[in-house]
Write a structure and sequence with these properties.
Strand order of the largest sheet: 1-4-2-3
CATH class of the largest domain: Alpha Beta
CATH architecture of the largest domain: 2-Layer Sandwich
GO molecular function, one term: calcium ion binding
Structural class: alpha+beta
Subcellular location: Cell outer membrane
Strand content: 5-15%
Distance between the termini: 113 Å
Helix content: 25-40%
Largest sheet: 4 strands, mixed
Organism: Halovibrio variabilis
Order of helices and strands: HHHEHEHEHE
Protein name: OmpA-like domain-containing protein
Keywords: Cell outer membrane, Membrane, Signal
């Protein structure tokens, strides 16, 4: 049998075998993304070696007697490259969601330039799932996008002046069962000048009132029984007004507040002890209907 015929027969047989490997490799790639799951004969290096043999055989068979070496080398190089390409892993890269933190986004949902669902109030819950759109910036929300209500009294935490109301207790619009004593809202001795600590406490009160714009409040000043009734009445009025003025400076509309001084008329403890007198010197916040 002539050299050319022998080479072509060997080459043809190897081509058929390589095609089968490549086809098998392609099917495996479609079924599994892990190249380690492929058979050894489907590896690109093995296919490249087989392709080199095929190409070398064809090059040898088709070259003249004087050019067998160059023909074999050229064919082997070309065959190796083609064999490697035929068995290359064609497994498609997994599609990475544009906005993985939201998972599967339903069709038709409005998205931003990055492909993420719109979140108009910036609370971390996309509009299409947000049951409380328009939540103020920075307010903690639940999975439905609604402000947290830790004591489940119907008044969200960011508006609740009494955030730890016992379960089942009826509350007013401030989130309190009744008027609430503004703890640590104290004044300089025998004056209506707020202490620095009192101003710090009132900052939180003001923030919650600003976030609860439909509620009006009564600010009520009280004293102990030392001093004359008239003096105590005037001092408690001035202290209530001082609190109202400070809340106004923090953004609470003045027409939402009234200041009332009760003096020593409404004690909550005995005026016979220092502890009792301390409790009676207080400012209370109540809903003003």
């Amino acid at each position: 049998m002539k050299k050319s015929t022998t080479g072509l027969l060997i080459g043809s047989a190897l081509v058929v075998g390589l095609s089968g490997c490549a086809s098998s490799a392609s099917q495996s790639s479609g079924q599994s993304s892990a190249s380690s799951d492929r058979s050894w004969y489907q590896h690109p290096a093995v296919c490249g070696l087989a392709g080199g043999v095929i190409g070398g055989s064809i090059g040898y068979a088709t070259s003249g007697s004087s050019d067998e070496t160059n023909g074999s080398a050229t064919g082997a190089a070309a065959g190796a490259a083609i064999g490697g390409l035929l068995c290359a892993d064609r497994t498609p890269e997994p599609v990475v969601p544009q906005c993985p933190s939201y998972g599967e986004v339903p069709a038709g949902v409005a998205v931003d330039a990055e492909g993420c669902p719109l979140d108009s109030d910036g609370d971390g819950v996309p509009d299409y799932r947000d049951q409380c759109p328009g939540t103020p910036a920075g307010v903690a929300v639940n999975a439905n996008g609604c402000p947290l209500d830790s004591d489940n009294d119907g008044v969200p935490d960011y508006r609740d002046q009494c955030p730890n109301t016992p379960a089942g207790v009826e509350v007013n619009a401030l989130g309190c069962p009744d008027s609430v004593v503004l703890q640590e809202v104290n004044f300089e001795f025998d004056s209506a000048q707020l202490t620095s600590n009192a101003r710090s406490v009132l900052n939180g009160v003001a923030e919650r009132l600003v976030n609860n714009p439909n509620v009006r409040v009564s600010i009520e000043g009280h004293t102990d029984s030392r001093g004359s009734d008239e003096y105590n009445k005037n001092l408690s009025q001035e202290r209530a007004q001082s609190v109202a003025a400070y809340l106004a400076s923090r953004g609470v509309a003045s027409n939402r507040m009234r200041a009332v001084g009760y003096g020593e008329e409404r004690p909550i403890a005995s005026n016979e002890t220092e502890e009792g007198r301390f409790q009676n010197r207080r400012v209370e916040l109540d809903e003003w209907n």
